[in-house]
Specification:
- By secondary structure, the chain is an alpha/beta fold.
- The protein has 2 domains: 9-165 and 329-394, D-Maltodextrin-Binding Protein, domain 2 (3-Layer(aba) Sandwich); 166-326 and 400-440, Periplasmic binding protein-like II (D-Maltodextrin-Binding Protein, domain 2).
- Helices cover 44% and strands 14% of the residues.
- It has 19 helices and 11 strands.
- It has helices at residues 23-37, 61-74, 89-101, 117-122, 130-133, 136-139, 145-151, 173-178, 187-201, 217-228, 245-260, 273-281, 294-300, 341-351, 354-364, 377-382, 386-394, 405-420, 426-440; strands spanning 9-11, 48-53, 78-84, 109-113, 152-153, 156-157, 160-172, 207-210, 285-291, 310-313, 327-334.
- It is globular, with a radius of gyration of 22 Å.
Length: 442
Amino acid sequence: MGLEAQCWKRYDGKHDIIHGMKRLALRGVLAAVLVLAGVAAGDALAQTRLRVFAGGLSHRPELIRKLFDQYHAAAPGVTIEIETGGATSELQRQYLSTVLNAKDASIDVFMIDIVNPAQYFGAGWLEPLNAYVGDPAVAMKPYLPAYAMANVIDGRIAALPAFADAMFMYYRKDLLEKHLLAEPKTWDELAAAARKIQQGEGDPNLQGLSIQGAPIEGAVCTFLLPYWSQGKELHDASGKLTLDKAAAVKGLNVWLALVDQGVIKRNVAEVKTSDTVNEFMAGQVVFAVNWGFAWDVFKKGKDSKVAGKVGVMPLPAVAGGKSATCAGGWQWAVSAFSRNKAEAARLVGFLAGPEASKFLAMEGSLLPTHRGAYADADVIKAVPWLKDAAGVLAGAHGRPVSKDYGQVSDVIRTTTSAVMARAKKPEEAVDEIAERLRRLAR
């Protein structure tokens, strides 16, 4: 079952329990979840074993494990096994698709990308959560708009938010200050700033900008960032998939121009999310587009050479356009094939609750999905940059909510990567994307 030995790891929830925690307080948090679910707290203590797929290493499974331990402390009759694996969203999606297509009941709860609820729900893989958490209008109100929207499909709650994310522009604050440069507002300004720093530093290995050009989900955002900044969307007012071909070609040409200027490295078609993180952390990049989780890595990574030197700013826009970024994030879903749906839903309610959101923010700088966390004094003290992140997230664009999102993603990321590799011209790639979207929109 699944992909060939992908470093899937399982941990028995009976082990590594945190001792000495304030059990009464934790029981209080869990009790609130149980009341919301309309279930008596005593039912949670039935002997149950849940198995949870918690994504890859970037999803901070060591912190998720601590949340499971908290749940176990409040409901000791529930034992939770954690399974992790898949370095990218695509590998995780492939694995879960294999498991769920087979109607395998071995996984009760799983973490999915923000783009997946509509697709998985349409396939019949997700247990609707309305019966456990109540009216969607009430249950989803505490969350940021992008996550409330992505997780409610045809009036049914398909999943609950785990943590938010978005693409940010990280930059070497020390280098911009050294060379007396302001934060660039357009890609042209970024190119000029990057070249000045590269020339001034005299380091042939210093990249001006790192983006993701490998055929991974991040390349979908690479395609969309300059497209959105021109005021364009991938859907019309009715939600039908559409594409402005001229704007799409212009967006791809923005990246190719930066490659030709030496700002982006020539093998960008091979660059994955982890490559950008590792190279920026090693001090080899001036500007880097990456997800929110990277902040904690840059700040606390044991091998980080940029700790204390990193700034965060809105993404530049195409000249004459407006800054736009790509909403990301992860959701907790209950398998339609689980034999323990009620208990799995209670666990998901806890994991998607405000206390869990606050814990992940303070311990791992994982962006909260709860609106209130961005005004929480404890959270802001622990992670000051969240004050700026809130504004970026509030205006972030979501990728298309579609049951056919897998096909949308496939054509955009593969053709974008082919353009970055100079294997296809932008016009040819955009024609392919437009044709696939046209067929899906029928």
